[in-house]
Write a structure and sequence with these properties.
Elements (H helix, E strand, L loop, with lengths): L2 H4 L1 E6 L2 E6 L4 H7 L23 E6 L2 E6 L10 E3 L3 H17 L4 H9 L21 H10 L5 E3 L6 E3 L14 H5 L7 E4 L2 E4 L4 E7 L6 E4 H11 L14
Parallel strand pairs: 1-5
Antiparallel strand pairs: 1-2, 3-4, 3-5, 6-7, 8-9, 9-10, 10-11
Protein backbone atom coordinates (compact mmCIF):
# COMPACT_ATOMS: atom_id res chain seq x y z
CA UNK A 1 0.00 0.00 0.00
CA UNK A 2 1.41 3.39 -0.98
CA UNK A 3 1.53 6.39 1.34
CA UNK A 4 -1.33 8.07 -0.54
CA UNK A 5 -3.46 4.91 -0.29
CA UNK A 6 -2.94 4.73 3.50
CA UNK A 7 -4.04 8.35 3.98
CA UNK A 8 -7.41 8.81 5.61
CA UNK A 9 -10.08 10.78 3.78
CA UNK A 10 -13.52 12.08 4.71
CA UNK A 11 -16.56 11.39 2.55
CA UNK A 12 -20.33 11.49 2.92
CA UNK A 13 -23.00 8.86 2.36
CA UNK A 14 -26.57 10.18 2.20
CA UNK A 15 -25.45 13.13 4.33
CA UNK A 16 -23.55 11.04 6.90
CA UNK A 17 -19.86 11.95 7.32
CA UNK A 18 -17.51 8.94 7.29
CA UNK A 19 -13.81 8.16 7.01
CA UNK A 20 -11.92 5.72 4.83
CA UNK A 21 -8.61 5.08 3.07
CA UNK A 22 -7.65 7.06 0.01
CA UNK A 23 -8.03 4.94 -3.12
CA UNK A 24 -9.80 1.94 -1.55
CA UNK A 25 -12.85 0.52 -3.30
CA UNK A 26 -15.92 2.61 -2.58
CA UNK A 27 -18.01 -0.57 -2.46
CA UNK A 28 -15.83 -2.12 0.23
CA UNK A 29 -15.85 1.10 2.24
CA UNK A 30 -19.65 1.22 2.06
CA UNK A 31 -19.98 -2.40 3.13
CA UNK A 32 -17.59 -1.87 6.01
CA UNK A 33 -20.06 0.70 7.36
CA UNK A 34 -22.95 -1.73 6.93
CA UNK A 35 -24.53 -0.38 3.76
CA UNK A 36 -26.18 -3.10 1.68
CA UNK A 37 -25.04 -2.48 -1.89
CA UNK A 38 -25.80 -5.43 -4.19
CA UNK A 39 -23.13 -6.97 -6.39
CA UNK A 40 -22.54 -10.29 -8.13
CA UNK A 41 -19.13 -9.83 -9.76
CA UNK A 42 -17.10 -8.44 -6.83
CA UNK A 43 -14.79 -10.33 -4.50
CA UNK A 44 -12.22 -8.70 -2.22
CA UNK A 45 -9.55 -11.24 -3.19
CA UNK A 46 -9.38 -10.13 -6.85
CA UNK A 47 -9.28 -6.93 -8.87
CA UNK A 48 -12.63 -5.18 -9.51
CA UNK A 49 -14.20 -5.61 -12.92
CA UNK A 50 -17.55 -3.79 -12.88
CA UNK A 51 -19.22 -6.51 -14.94
CA UNK A 52 -22.62 -6.94 -13.31
CA UNK A 53 -23.34 -3.18 -12.86
CA UNK A 54 -25.48 -3.85 -9.80
CA UNK A 55 -23.33 -1.86 -7.36
CA UNK A 56 -24.40 1.43 -8.94
CA UNK A 57 -24.46 4.54 -6.76
CA UNK A 58 -24.48 8.26 -7.45
CA UNK A 59 -21.28 10.13 -6.61
CA UNK A 60 -20.88 13.88 -6.42
CA UNK A 61 -17.42 15.40 -6.67
CA UNK A 62 -17.49 19.16 -6.55
CA UNK A 63 -20.43 20.28 -8.69
CA UNK A 64 -20.48 17.16 -10.85
CA UNK A 65 -22.77 14.28 -9.94
CA UNK A 66 -22.76 11.00 -11.85
CA UNK A 67 -23.96 7.41 -11.79
CA UNK A 68 -21.08 4.93 -11.34
CA UNK A 69 -20.24 1.40 -10.28
CA UNK A 70 -18.88 1.53 -6.73
CA UNK A 71 -16.66 -1.59 -6.91
CA UNK A 72 -14.08 0.11 -9.15
CA UNK A 73 -14.55 3.69 -7.97
CA UNK A 74 -11.64 4.79 -5.74
CA UNK A 75 -12.51 6.50 -2.50
CA UNK A 76 -11.31 10.11 -2.38
CA UNK A 77 -11.51 13.19 -0.19
CA UNK A 78 -14.74 15.16 -0.17
CA UNK A 79 -16.98 13.02 -2.38
CA UNK A 80 -20.66 12.60 -1.58
CA UNK A 81 -22.33 9.26 -2.20
CA UNK A 82 -26.06 8.80 -2.69
CA UNK A 83 -27.55 5.32 -2.33
CA UNK A 84 -30.85 3.99 -3.68
CA UNK A 85 -31.82 7.20 -5.44
CA UNK A 86 -34.56 7.07 -8.06
CA UNK A 87 -31.92 6.96 -10.82
CA UNK A 88 -29.92 4.22 -9.09
CA UNK A 89 -32.95 2.01 -8.46
CA UNK A 90 -34.30 2.55 -11.99
CA UNK A 91 -30.99 1.59 -13.60
CA UNK A 92 -30.53 -1.36 -11.26
CA UNK A 93 -33.93 -2.73 -12.28
CA UNK A 94 -32.96 -2.57 -15.96
CA UNK A 95 -29.70 -4.39 -15.15
CA UNK A 96 -31.68 -7.10 -13.36
CA UNK A 97 -34.00 -7.46 -16.35
CA UNK A 98 -30.93 -7.97 -18.56
CA UNK A 99 -29.49 -10.51 -16.13
CA UNK A 100 -32.79 -12.38 -16.02
CA UNK A 101 -32.64 -12.67 -19.79
CA UNK A 102 -29.01 -13.72 -19.76
CA UNK A 103 -29.13 -16.18 -16.86
CA UNK A 104 -32.77 -17.03 -16.13
CA UNK A 105 -31.85 -20.20 -14.21
CA UNK A 106 -29.60 -18.37 -11.73
CA UNK A 107 -31.33 -18.47 -8.35
CA UNK A 108 -29.30 -15.55 -6.96
CA UNK A 109 -30.28 -13.36 -9.92
CA UNK A 110 -33.95 -14.22 -9.44
CA UNK A 111 -33.72 -13.43 -5.72
CA UNK A 112 -32.16 -10.02 -6.32
CA UNK A 113 -34.66 -9.25 -9.06
CA UNK A 114 -37.57 -10.08 -6.75
CA UNK A 115 -36.15 -7.72 -4.11
CA UNK A 116 -36.43 -4.90 -6.65
CA UNK A 117 -39.88 -5.92 -7.87
CA UNK A 118 -38.56 -7.38 -11.12
CA UNK A 119 -40.32 -10.65 -11.85
CA UNK A 120 -40.00 -10.78 -15.63
CA UNK A 121 -37.85 -9.42 -18.43
CA UNK A 122 -38.75 -7.70 -21.72
CA UNK A 123 -35.51 -8.91 -23.25
CA UNK A 124 -35.08 -12.10 -25.27
CA UNK A 125 -34.13 -15.23 -23.34
CA UNK A 126 -31.77 -17.34 -25.43
CA UNK A 127 -31.08 -20.17 -23.00
CA UNK A 128 -33.62 -20.81 -20.21
CA UNK A 129 -31.17 -23.15 -18.46
CA UNK A 130 -28.22 -20.72 -18.34
CA UNK A 131 -26.89 -19.59 -14.97
CA UNK A 132 -23.66 -17.83 -16.04
CA UNK A 133 -23.65 -14.01 -16.02
CA UNK A 134 -20.15 -13.66 -17.54
CA UNK A 135 -18.87 -11.85 -14.46
CA UNK A 136 -15.35 -13.22 -14.96
CA UNK A 137 -14.80 -13.93 -11.26
CA UNK A 138 -13.74 -17.51 -11.96
CA UNK A 139 -11.05 -16.46 -14.45
CA UNK A 140 -9.80 -13.65 -12.21
CA UNK A 141 -9.41 -15.87 -9.14
CA UNK A 142 -7.73 -18.53 -11.28
CA UNK A 143 -5.17 -16.03 -12.58
CA UNK A 144 -4.71 -13.62 -9.68
CA UNK A 145 -5.00 -15.93 -6.66
CA UNK A 146 -4.23 -19.45 -7.87
CA UNK A 147 -1.64 -18.31 -10.42
CA UNK A 148 -3.04 -20.36 -13.30
CA UNK A 149 -4.91 -19.24 -16.42
CA UNK A 150 -6.97 -22.35 -17.10
CA UNK A 151 -10.09 -20.55 -18.39
CA UNK A 152 -11.04 -17.37 -20.18
CA UNK A 153 -13.63 -15.54 -22.27
CA UNK A 154 -14.39 -16.62 -25.83
CA UNK A 155 -16.43 -14.67 -28.39
CA UNK A 156 -17.90 -11.19 -28.24
CA UNK A 157 -21.21 -9.51 -27.61
CA UNK A 158 -24.13 -11.87 -27.09
CA UNK A 159 -21.87 -14.82 -27.97
CA UNK A 160 -19.35 -14.10 -25.22
CA UNK A 161 -18.80 -17.12 -22.94
CA UNK A 162 -16.43 -18.26 -20.22
CA UNK A 163 -14.82 -21.48 -21.42
CA UNK A 164 -11.79 -23.73 -21.16
CA UNK A 165 -9.38 -23.38 -24.13
CA UNK A 166 -11.10 -24.46 -27.36
CA UNK A 167 -14.14 -25.33 -25.23
CA UNK A 168 -12.52 -28.63 -24.32
CA UNK A 169 -10.90 -29.94 -21.12
CA UNK A 170 -9.07 -27.28 -19.09
CA UNK A 171 -5.73 -29.07 -18.99
CA UNK A 172 -4.11 -26.35 -16.84
CA UNK A 173 -6.84 -26.60 -14.18
CA UNK A 174 -5.34 -27.93 -10.93
CA UNK A 175 -8.75 -28.82 -9.49
CA UNK A 176 -8.48 -26.47 -6.50
CA UNK A 177 -12.14 -25.42 -6.72
CA UNK A 178 -11.46 -21.70 -6.19
CA UNK A 179 -13.58 -20.86 -9.23
CA UNK A 180 -16.47 -22.90 -7.81
CA UNK A 181 -16.16 -21.11 -4.46
CA UNK A 182 -16.32 -17.56 -5.87
CA UNK A 183 -18.96 -18.17 -8.57
CA UNK A 184 -21.99 -16.05 -7.55
CA UNK A 185 -24.53 -18.16 -9.44
CA UNK A 186 -23.26 -21.72 -8.81
CA UNK A 187 -22.87 -22.45 -12.51
CA UNK A 188 -19.54 -24.34 -12.50
CA UNK A 189 -20.12 -27.38 -10.32
CA UNK A 190 -17.70 -29.67 -8.52
CA UNK A 191 -18.18 -33.27 -7.43
CA UNK A 192 -16.09 -36.06 -5.89
CA UNK A 193 -16.82 -39.71 -6.62
CA UNK A 194 -14.60 -42.77 -6.36
CA UNK A 195 -11.47 -40.80 -5.56
CA UNK A 196 -11.95 -38.45 -8.53
CA UNK A 197 -12.68 -34.73 -8.32
CA UNK A 198 -14.58 -33.32 -11.30
CA UNK A 199 -14.79 -29.62 -12.12
CA UNK A 200 -17.86 -30.04 -14.24
CA UNK A 201 -18.00 -26.96 -16.45
CA UNK A 202 -14.33 -27.22 -17.44
CA UNK A 203 -14.60 -31.00 -18.08
CA UNK A 204 -11.65 -31.56 -15.73
CA UNK A 205 -11.27 -34.85 -13.85
CA UNK A 206 -8.40 -35.30 -11.40
CA UNK A 207 -7.55 -38.17 -9.01
CA UNK A 208 -7.58 -37.31 -5.32
CA UNK A 209 -4.57 -38.01 -3.11
CA UNK A 210 -5.07 -40.47 -0.27
CA UNK A 211 -3.70 -39.26 3.06
CA UNK A 212 -0.75 -41.44 4.12
CA UNK A 213 -1.95 -41.31 7.76
CA UNK A 214 -5.75 -41.41 7.91
CA UNK A 215 -6.39 -42.83 4.44
CA UNK A 216 -9.05 -40.36 3.31
CA UNK A 217 -9.07 -38.57 -0.03
CA UNK A 218 -8.34 -34.89 0.47
CA UNK A 219 -7.00 -33.03 -2.61
CA UNK A 220 -6.18 -33.57 -6.29
CA UNK A 221 -2.70 -35.00 -6.80
CA UNK A 222 -2.11 -32.49 -9.59
CA UNK A 223 -2.88 -29.63 -7.18
CA UNK A 224 -0.44 -30.98 -4.56
CA UNK A 225 2.28 -31.33 -7.20
CA UNK A 226 1.77 -27.65 -8.04
CA UNK A 227 1.93 -26.67 -4.37
CA UNK A 228 5.24 -28.49 -3.99
CA UNK A 229 6.56 -26.76 -7.11
CA UNK A 230 5.45 -23.29 -5.96
CA UNK A 231 6.59 -23.59 -2.33
CA UNK A 232 9.82 -25.53 -2.86
CA UNK A 233 8.81 -27.95 -0.10
CA UNK A 234 9.46 -31.69 -0.51
CA UNK A 235 6.65 -33.49 -2.34
CA UNK A 236 6.27 -35.83 0.63
CA UNK A 237 5.18 -32.86 2.77
CA UNK A 238 1.88 -32.93 0.91
CA UNK A 239 1.20 -36.65 1.29
CA UNK A 240 -0.75 -35.98 4.48
CA UNK A 241 -4.08 -34.18 4.69
CA UNK A 242 -4.14 -30.82 6.54
CA UNK A 243 -5.59 -32.43 9.69
CA UNK A 244 -2.86 -35.07 9.93
CA UNK A 245 -0.10 -32.72 8.82
Amino acid sequence: MTESQSREVTFKVDGRSLRGRQGESLLEALRRYGYQVPSLCHHEAVSPYGACRLCLVEVQKGKRRKLTTSCNYPLMEGIEVFLDTEQVVSNRRVVLQLLLAQAPAAERVRQLAAEYGVNDTPFEVEDPENRCINCGLCARVCKEVVGVEAIGFSGRGAGKRMVAPYDETAEDCIGCGACVFVCPTDCIGMSETGGIRTIERWHRKLPLKTCSVCGRHFAPTFQLNKFAEWTGLPRGHFDKCPDCR
